[in-house]
Automatic annotation (TrEMBL):
Pfam families per record: RrnaAD
Main location, first listed in the record: cytoplasm
Gene transcribed to yield this protein: rsmA
CDD domains in alphabetical order: AdoMet_MTases (cd02440)
Record bears the keyword Translocase: no
Source taxon at top rank: Bacteria
Class in the EC hierarchy, top level: transferase
Coiled coil regions in record: none
Family per record: Belongs to the class I-like SAM-binding methyltransferase superfamily. rRNA adenine N(6)-methyltransferase family. RsmA subfamily.
Gene3D superfamilies in the record: Ribosomal RNA adenine dimethylase-like, domain 2 (1.10.8.100), Vaccinia Virus protein VP39 (3.40.50.150)
UniProt name for this protein: Ribosomal RNA small subunit methyltransferase A
Alphabetically ordered keywords of this record: Cytoplasm, Methyltransferase, RNA-binding, rRNA processing, S-adenosyl-L-methionine, Transferase
NCBIfam families hit by this protein: ksgA
Subcellular location: Cytoplasm
Amino acid sequence: MPQLWKIGSIKDILSRHGFTFSKALGQNFLINPTVCPRMAEVSGVTPDSGVIEVGPGIGVLTAELSKRARKVVAIELDDRLLPVLEETLGGRENVTVVHGDILKIDLKGLIEREFAGMGVCLCANLPYYITSQVIMRLLEERLPLRSITVMVQKEAATRLCAPLGSRECGAVTVAVRYFSEPRVVFGVSAGSFLPAPKVDSAVIQLAVRERPPVEVESERAFFRVVKAAFAGRRKTAVNSLSMNLGLPKETVSAAFEGAGIAPTARAENLSMEQLAALAAALFPQMGSSQGEKER
């Protein structure tokens, strides 16, 4: 296999296949030789496990994962890269390239079909423009994944892994922490890519929880409250919830008082337990009596 992190090798292969980078697809290929081996090493992949990769590009990370995993399934949206991957990954019998959209493909079916009897991880250099969508889909569908190790924009990494109660915390932070235990693993400079993006990146890892850290009567109600609370970050949570849920301020204030929460609290000040208590108080009709557990 050629040294695919070298600019000369990349340009040679892409030129022979008539490939040009697509800004719309957020294509940036790694040219730093240390990043992909390190990502593969921390991904949690073992010789007995399977791994899903999203957006393999020209196959640099794919190759590293294939050295460590029993099987790799790489999902690539851009059909122009399929012949490139056929060349660069040729001979790696434990690698399967699937042409598809990570936001549309039947992931549960893919895991059942491709990874029978294996523990499964996901490891990918995600296109930045769909980072949150991909991560939330992977978590919300409760796929049988042990962990999700992905490279994202540095700013997104800070937001996704922020501690609850911090200024960086947002609705997506709460959702990520509800389904997983996130951490920032290491940073990656913009110069590590071709073409170089305008921002630095970071590799994060989400250890998927077997069960959420807080019991909620209705996940739908819980996430409605989370989204509404953070929709007005400059407002108090009482005002934000009242405005975004269309509820009387008195009703929301009473829920805060019942949960022992200060009326001046802002969304980032609320714990997951407090958000769950507010959801139960504001939407009792969506509780466990209906068996409702979906977003």
